[in-house]
Amino acid sequence: MAETRPTAATAAKTSTSSVQPKRKGNSISWVAPLVCIIAGYVIWRFIIGADSNFTHPDPNGGFWPSQEGAKGNFPKMYQGGIIVPILIGAFLTVLTFVIERFMTISKATGTGNIAEFIRKVQYHLANKNVDAAIAECDKQKGSVGNVMKAGLRKYKEMITTELDTEQKVIAIQKEVEEATALELPMLEKNLVFISTIASVATLMGLLGTVMGMIRSFSALGDSGGGEAAQKLSQGISEALYNTALGIGTSAISIIMYNIFTTKIDGITYGIDESGFTLTQSFASLYK
């Protein structure tokens, strides 16, 4: 009776994966925008729009008091309208996610240079010292190190497994792919908020400007003379604060989004290179 060898599919079933899913909540994704918009309103209403900043404050107060006679450029931002607190909230949201992504991506980058780390692992594997290579992963402490470590554990397991070389390489590659699938979503999480605000903030600023212009020209039609021209120029100046806030927020969002995606691309390249290193090393050393 002919002896049957285990197939790659059988190997995948019998070998257990060392990769475990990371259970992390993402409550910041919905809490942060809400809190930031509320904070934007508080800043607009009670700090920028404080009664002491105007010569003719609205004594009735309320949600949107009609303050007049701003005592400087900063209080004039209040008179830009109700879009201003939304734009301030958008800016605070961007700032929140920039800090959150910076901390996460910095941690994922790990310590030291990724290319140097991969060279050290390659050196240890060339000397068939898998434990030393795993120790290098512990020192790296980043996403590349995590993926490499998962692959190295499978690498070490495959050395003593009764399979042919091709099946072992497939098992290592599968382990690396599973580890990568768990690491990459963590890196890209919440970037959608930064990219969305980058697109929407300018439009919101233009909306606020258009609303301010409508109010200004409406006031011009209700009165005449030099006073009307003065109110028109004042209204246009106040409306343009919306544009300035929108463009400024959008510019910061675009810059930070590009910085983060560049860093993520570097990490992703390191992960791809680590997987290639493991499979090629095993295929050449354990034929």
How would you briefly describe this protein structure?
The chain has helices at residues 8-14, 28-48, 73-76, 83-109, 114-126, 130-140, 143-159, 165-188, 191-222, 225-285, and strands spanning 54-56, 68-70.
Detailed description of the structure:
- The chain has 287 residues and is an all-alpha fold.
- The protein has a domain at 104-285.
- The protein has ten helices and two strands.
- The chain has helices at 8-14, 28-48, 73-76, 83-109, 114-126, 130-140, 143-159, 165-188, 191-222, 225-285; strands spanning 54-56, 68-70.
- Strands 1-2 form a two-stranded antiparallel sheet.
- Helix 2 crosses helix 4 and helix 5 (114-126) runs parallel beside helix 10.
- The longest helix is centred in the last third of the chain and has 61 residues, at 225-285.
- The chain is rod-shaped.
- It starts with 7 loop residues before the first helix and ends with a helix.
Q: Total number of helical segments?
A: 10
Low-confidence parts, pLDDT < 50 over ≥5 residues?
1-15
Q: Order of strands across the widest beta sheet?
A: 1-2
Shape: rod-shaped
| Assembly of the depicted chains | single chain
Radius of gyration: 29 Å
Quick check: average pLDDT?
86
| SSE topology string | HHEEHHHHHHHH
Q: Portion of residues in helices?
A: over 70%
Structural class: mainly alpha
Largest sheet data: 2 strands, antiparallel
**Amino- and carboxy-terminal Cα gap:** 27 Å
Using DSSP, what is the number of strands? 2
Strand content: under 5%
Features:
about 290 residues; mainly alpha; two-stranded antiparallel sheet; rod-shaped; disordered N terminus
